[in-house]
Amino acid sequence: MKFSLSWLREHLSGDYALDDVTGALNRIGLEVESVEDKAAKLKGFTIAYVVSAVQHPNADKLRVCMVDTGTGEPVQVVCGAPNARTGMKSVFSPPGTYIPGKDMTLGIGSIRGVESRGMLCSAAELQLSEDHDGIIDLPEDAPVGASYVDWIGLDDPVVEIAVTPNRADALGIHGIARDLAAAGIGTLIETPIAPVKGLYPCPVSVAIEPGAPCPAFALRLVRGVKNGPSPEWLQAKLRAIGLRPINALVDVTNFLTFDRNRPLHVFDAAKVHGNLVVRPAKDGESLLALDGKTYALDSGICVIADDKAVESLAGVMGGEESGCDEGTTDVLVESALWEPINIAQTGRRLGLNSDARFRFERGVDPAFTVPGVELATQLILDLCGGEPSEIVLAGAIPDTTRVIDFPLALTEKLTGLVASDAEQVGTLAKLGFAVEGTSGTVRVTPPSWRGDIEGKADLVEEVIRIVGLDRVPSTPFPRDENARKPVLTTLQLRTRKSKRALAARGLVEAVTWSFVPKAQAELFGGGQPELALANPIASDLSDMRPSLLPGLVRSAQANADRGIGDVALFEVGQVFKGERPQDQFIAATAIRRAFAKPTGAGRHWAGRATAVDAFDAKADALAVLAAVGAPVANLQISTDAPGWFHPGRSGTFRLGPNVIGHFGELHPSALEALDAEGPLVGFEVLLDRVPEPKAKATRVKPLLELSAFQPVERDFAFVVARSVAAGDILKAAAGVDRKLITAVNVFDVYEGPGIDADAKSVALSVTLQPREKTLTDAEIEAVAGRIVAEVTRKTGATLRG
Amino acid sequence: MSVAALPDLASLEADLLAAIAAAADEAELEAIRVAALGKKGSVSELLKSLGGMSPEERKSAGPAINGLRDRLNEALSARRTDLKAAALAKRLETERVDVTLPVRETPAEAGRLHPISQVIDELTAIFADMGFSVAEGPDIEDDFHNFTALNFPEGHPAREMHDTFYLPTKEDGSRLVLRTHTSPVQVRTMLSKKPPIRVICPGRTYRSDSDQTHTPMFHQVEGLVIDKGSNLGHLKWILEEFCKAFFEVDNVKMRFRPSFFPFTEPSMEVDIQCDRSRPGEIRFGEGSDWLEILGCGMVHPNVLRNCGLDPDEYQGFAWGMGIDRIAMLKYGMPDLRAFFEADVRWLAHYGFRPLDFPTLAGGLST
């Protein structure tokens, strides 16, 4: 919402400066977005009289002008404008003036041998319009020597404010003035709006079809008007706030839209056929609107039609056919009320923004419907003459009167701000609220223009925004008396721990989009229709991600494309397996590319660079699982990872029936589909799937048992079929005596010469921890024998000779 | 054996001591020891000869021979120590590494947390200290939790301020949304927990908007207090304390401006004092400039009612701000879009080391 300071002064009297206004606007909730003072940079331009303009001796297209600038002897100026002529008045800039349209400072020059001491300017050179066809041609009465911008009224700062959706009343300058006056800036000028007496019945009737979103519709004919350009004062006002003057009748409607937040429409009565009806559009109807575009209509859109056709989009924009132009002699003035939701929907569906729509969808003052016509009529009579008819009113002005019981003590209870009863009541009164009572609980009737006021909390806001939020006292907020307890849920703690566990392994945290292209969603187990956005911002951000892997893989490739190929990235974030809350999980996922090993990336003198492998991903996954408190020792690993992993180099973590996650090399086809190059390994773990730890009554750790006896380590080398899982050998060995055997480790795996082609050698070291006495050789041998027997029984292994 | 047969002990001693001194290594020294003090060593033989001597003879020869043995042992031990030291010194002489060779970077030094994660941990530390817990909810929300319960009437222009992402329309005409703010978490909290309530809700939010300062996905943190007496004055204090703690300044001026949000009444926007006179740098707590950082207000009575709370009994306040935005302001990151580009150069520069855990005790960012 824009307004100029001079326009504001027509509604707000008193001695105040621009800074007072902008400061107060910010304080009362009408946030100042910008202040534009066009005049500031155009101060040096003055009105001048061209005493003579003669042909330049050396150039066909130039004229040598003697210019009276009002400061003494005429000044010689060389001018190339085709319209420069003796006796005209134009705009002059002396040497030293900055010309904004040319971004240069004028000097004294010699043009084709003739000295030029200044310039006659076009509107484009002043950046006032695009017009650079000739120099500005001013009327005869323009005062020579005066500041041009002062004279045209440009010396008038324009303020733009952001109006929140609840404050429709501040979309009119009168409403802004009322707020300012209440806040102590100036005095609101309230002039009663006198009805204009109708001289004859309005010959055009209005019918509102039942169900049409139009509570009331007022119409009046003014016949015998003389339309044409509106006077300079009106044009200047409209131009100042960025509107284009059109003709007097249209300018009047635009003026009242901004002056009073009262959008109006004018029909050329000669182009209206018969009577008007407000009704839903019929399917197939269309309208060429005033913006020059044709809109296809349907029954969801409310229109104003005459006997022949649709003439206007209700509350949004008029039609071109029945619009007023210079030839209009009889004009129908419309002032109507529309249901905000219908206007908003129509505007949104048609993609049509207008000043009328903006106001009607926020809600105009219903009580101003008829006064709006009166004000418009008076202006039309003043500017264009004519004879007004009586007003016809279809529907009825709704009575929005409501009374709110407002306990004045609520202000302090809700805000801590202390304002006296008198101050509160006085503030509301200044804003136009009717208040019955002076203390305790008062009865407040909001004014008709404040449709946003629903209850007492709204009244508290009105009071405190006007008396000043700086009076709200900063009040220490006591901490609860509750004990200091963890403030994070298990899942939040897991999220936080897995991030730091992964970063501690040299991985870098990425935050990637929650949406991925459909093809990627499908590739990683998603792509359900219910998870595809109805209105994606781009086609490659179309579906909710089922996995963090595609985003990370693409990010790794993007880094590789920038020349950094050894990338280790992780993300802990939402994945979407379905649309319900319980189908949205927190996944911890990481990838490693090329040589980005956990021990460090790339080549190093201390060891050969090796490519990442599935075990790096497995170690990353186990680090996360350990960090979040998963029972890592009980994890089962199977080889049935999903299809985006390499079938032979990947695994699945399970706890009982629950799949916790997967790890391994990415499938070459998946990489290809992601347009990415490997080697690339990764894991994904669903943190929600890790069982909740059991609540413990105390923080005491189990007693530490230290054995006085030395542990014994025995090595075994087994030869087994290559298809046997090392995990099964470990499990078999460890299961022989869970108390005595405290650790089993694989220290060598060998395939090659000396072993059958389809076999491998797996070497274990087993740690025995005696607790009561030192083991005898015989006892050790006995356990070793059982280990060999059990491993052989479970896996078909033989002890390597 | 007669006394006269005793060899010249003095010269024997001199010879042996000379040999010990000349021994080049421990093996040679050991050979000398065996030759003198071994079972059949020269000195051992002398000691044995004492047994055949008359008491008279023994009286003089005994101390002489025993003294010789003791001095030899001493000399052997001293020489052994010297030889050991020399041998070690010689070995160490050959053991050399080039200590200027670079070592592998510690993984914890290479890894990084994203600034968003770090800032969420900072926020949690600050608000946990004031007695707030952390609440979360789903990213895919229904219309009730994201809009209706929050007093956004159907068709109201306030809904349009949120450029909402929608999921497909269902058969019953309803459609889920990607939450446009973290306020639905407040609704879920009020519906599931009886007051007093003190929570912060950090999380991902979505709006279909994209330019230098807007991305279709971003992060918000909201706070909610519901009880029977907390008022705007408390909110003001909390926000002041938060800004001081978060921006790590001793004092900061704030400016509260009336505003509008459907879910609060009264509503405010808050500007924070800053100095932007240095190019590319913002300082908080000084200067005469203002920067908008958050929106807040008293929870709207309709919202309380929609969540089953009686507005005549309960009241409270809520606030919300952009995590990405306050991270940018605090740490001077110029472009929001870079947050989501996973450029490891950016992450290495603006990210945080995993062991730099923000605590109030240690300073949030040190």
Automatic annotation (TrEMBL), chain A:
PROSITE patterns: B5, FDX_ACB, TRBD. Signal peptide: none annotated. InterPro entries: aa-tRNA-synth_II/BPL/LPL, B3/B4_tRNA-bd, DNA-bd_dom_put_sf, Fdx_antiC-bd, Fdx_antiC-bd_sf, NA-bd_OB-fold, Phe-tRNA-ligase_IIc_bsu, Phe-tRNA-ligase_IIc_bsu_bact. SMART domains: B3_4, B5, FDX-ACB. Binds 2 magnesium ions per tetramer. It catalyses: tRNA(Phe) + L-phenylalanine + ATP = L-phenylalanyl-tRNA(Phe) + AMP + diphosphate + H(+). CDD domains: PheRS_beta_core, tRNA_bind_bactPheRS. It is an enzyme of class 6 (ligase). It comes from Ancylobacter koreensis. This is Phenylalanine--tRNA ligase beta subunit.
Automatic annotation (TrEMBL), chain B:
Keywords: Aminoacyl-tRNA synthetase, ATP-binding, Cytoplasm, Ligase, Magnesium, Metal-binding, Nucleotide-binding, Protein biosynthesis. Gene3D superfamilies: Bira Bifunctional Protein, Domain 2. Its EC number is 6.1.1.20. The keyword Cytoplasm applies. PROSITE patterns: AA_TRNA_LIGASE_II. Its cofactor is Mg(2+). Mg(2+) binds at residue 265. It comes from the Bacteria. It is an enzyme of class 6 (ligase). It catalyses: tRNA(Phe) + L-phenylalanine + ATP = L-phenylalanyl-tRNA(Phe) + AMP + diphosphate + H(+). InterPro entries: aa-tRNA-synth_II (IPR006195), aa-tRNA-synth_II/BPL/LPL (IPR045864), Phe-tRNA-synth_IIc_asu (IPR004529), Phe-tRNA_ligase_II_N (IPR004188), Phe_tRNA_ligase_alpha1_bac (IPR022911), Phenylalanyl-tRNA_Synthase (IPR002319), tRNA-bd_arm (IPR010978). Binds 2 magnesium ions per tetramer. Transmembrane segments: none annotated. It is found in: Cytoplasm. GO terms for molecular function: phenylalanine-tRNA ligase activity. Belongs to the class-II aminoacyl-tRNA synthetase family. Phe-tRNA synthetase alpha subunit type 1 subfamily. Tetramer of two alpha and two beta subunits. PANTHER family: PHENYLALANINE--TRNA LIGASE, MITOCHONDRIAL, PHENYLALANYL-TRNA SYNTHETASE. This is Phenylalanine--tRNA ligase alpha subunit. It comes from Ancylobacter koreensis. The gene is pheS.
